[in-house]
Amino acid sequence: MNFLAIDLGTSAVKALVVDERQHVLATSTVPLSTSRLHPHWSEQDPEDWWTAVCSAIDQLRAAAGKNWQAIAAIGLSGQMHGAVLLGGDDLPVRPAILWNDGRAHAEAALLLERIPGIGEISGVPPTASFTAPKLLWLQRHEPDTWRKTRRIVLPKDYIRLKITGICATDMCDAAGSLLFDSGNRIWSKTIMAACNTSPEMLPRAMEGAAVSGNLRADIASAWGLPQTGIPVAAGAGDAAAGAIGIGAINDGDAFISLGTSSQYFITRNAYAPAPASMLHTFCHGLPERWFQMAALLNGASCLAWIASVMGAADDIEGLLQTSADHYTAPSALLFLPYLVGERTPLNDPHSKGALYGLTPGATRSDIVQAVLEGVAFSLGHCQQVLADAGTTPKELAVIGGGSRSLYWMRILANVLGRPLTLYEGGEVGPAFGAARLARLAVTGESITAVCTPPPVKTRIEADPALVEQYRERLSSFRKLYTLLAPVFQPSTLTG
Q: 395: buried, middle or exposed (CB in 10 Å: 19+, 13-18, 0-12)?
């Protein structure tokens, strides 16, 4: 018995096959591109997602060999907060507006004005990142599009609709739309009404290991799978799926996900919103669990950006190694990593990236180190916010593509002042969690038996001397943003 997982990320679709011993048997990755037609815009075509999924499945099928025919269930995970609008034919009426799209900041303010206590209901105050403000923006700026809209789904759930014909989602992804009552795990009538949205337009919200539907016979045939109605689990938004993948399912379990964006995630056994701190308190992908999360719009995307600028997009490992060879202390440069604005804890869609402290002696290695430190500092800032809210992790793991760089992990451990655990297969992140949910959907096993931490690959210890130096640099990092924040505002930039 094997399990198929499909993770619809922002930069790529990832798919994998996991066996009953929880070994990854085969993987595939197909890149995705993002359209940025205007400042603060970020869109993708849902049909491009579907094409990429089918391509990933073709690659995975070839890589899996005889293991392919033993697929017993399918799990889904993916990028959260997107707005996918479908017409009566269940096809997109426009490109999907992504989580890192900042156009709806005025509508987020309007939603907070309409429902001052929305943060207590949904788990976080409105920002442009979430689905709900995007819907208000569309009603205001694209009324014809809104009139054509019959369904609103989250990104991964468009793939579910394609492969099962069922419109459903999981509790985590539903919470991330900001249309959800996260404490009661139901769609919020109050927020729906404020967004001119009806329950009929939204998917059914289910627990992550529930069977949402079965694989359509024609899709099974196209994918070379037995046409026996393979169950498709509800799955989870990428944040919760990543947690399930590394066994962060009990109160206080914590990890950082360092992918295109980044998150600092702590599991909670009760709903405890902290809207004033811009922490996201959402439903976990498993019953009777929630999480608090610092959600950052910028992560490994900053490394990809600087590598591209330096003409090293095809040799990021070499770029990192050269910088690592010179690493002895914090960089003299400071980098603000807010290339696409920022959520936690700034709630500033207008913030920008900035590189401060350049001199004629600055080198490529110095700049690369500063970029890595900038992302680490933003996570360090969030760690302080979590602590102020009374949330302190027991242990801290790191998953996602950024965790492949031990150099970056050394920097992060020193900035956070705590050891970091890296797990075997941690870079596959949410996809592995989705495979676990697929397994739970069909085996009836207990959550604690399946969702255990993977084998530890390595543990990165903090250097006490560097921890102290980085504490001072984090203070300077926060001051730099405070000084530049007024300059980032549109009225200043256009004045």
A: middle
Active site residue 7: no
**What does pTM read for this prediction?**
0.89
What DSSP element (H or E) covers 96?
strand 96-97
Q: What whole-number distance in Å separates Cα of residue 251 and Cα of residue 266? A: 8
Structure tokens at 18: 């996991």
Q: Tell me, what amino acid is at 145?
A: T
The mean of the pLDDT values for the chain is 95
Q: Give Cα 177 to chain centroid, integer Å.
A: 13
Task: Please say whether the beta carbons of 42 and 36 come within 8 A.
Answer: yes
Distance CA 386, CA 392 (A): 7
Active-site hit among 181, 238, 253, 366: 238
> 69-102: per-residue pLDDT in tens?
999 999 999 999 999 999 999 999 999 999 989 8
Residue 491 reports pLDDT greater than 70: no
Predicted pLDDT at 349? 83
pLDDT of residue 347: 84
Q: Supply the DSSP string of 107-176, one letter for each residue.
A: HHHHHHHH-TTHHHHHSS---TTSHHHHHHHHHHH-HHHHHH--EEE-HHHHHHHHHHS--EEEHHHHHT
> Helices marked H in 165-270 — which ranges?
171-175, 189-194, 217-222, 238-245
pLDDT tens track for 222-234: 999 988 899 999 9
DSSP 92: B
End-to-end CA distance of the chain: 63
* pLDDT at residue 260, as a whole number: 85
Six-digit token string for 367: 């700049």
Length of the chain: 495
Q: Which two tokens stand for residue 59?
A: 């690659």
Residue 444, sorted as left (phi over 0), alpha (psi -120 to 50) or beta, turns out to be left
Closest by Cα among 137, 125, 146, 201 to 169: 201
